[in-house]
Design a protein that fits this description.
There is one protein chain. It is built from 6 helices and 9 strands. It is α/β, with parallel strands linked by helices and 171 residues long. The two termini are 28 Å apart.
Length: 171
Amino acid sequence: YLEPLTATGYHTVKMFRELSNGNIGFLWRAHNNWASSMPNLTRFLGQGDKQGIFDAFICVSEVYPTMSCRYADVVLPAAMWVEREGQFGNAERRTSVFEKAVDPVGDAKWDVWVLLEVARRVLEGETIGGEDAFTRLFGFIWDAEKDDFNGDSREVNRAIWEEYRTFSNPD
């Protein structure tokens, strides 16, 4: 369980090729309107007896009803960057920390909250080294007794940042 990765994942175009060939059965994309940005998206929409991306289950976390939402089986309402605390990375490998400015609208949720809710369900009954898998992986930010985060969003983000920092800058 949780064995080290031995190979890198697919780049975006390869991922959609494999998805449309039926080799990937599930895709969860967050904050990336791939239906508008993918080059020649129509080649992934299916040909012959293949349904293309429609053969897979697609989940989209999005703040607006984008083109990607049209192809999704489920859309999770995500909070915008101004509606949550967080760290954001870009293609230049820079990470910035943002503070929440306003509360999210409607049912929109913070990405970390969504991730943990999915992880709780996926990891239910699983163990790592005899310890509850969810607690082992997320206990540093989640209090199982309170069934809530350990502290406010700023404290949780600080803990996540420190965890991330050890991977990116171990010294």
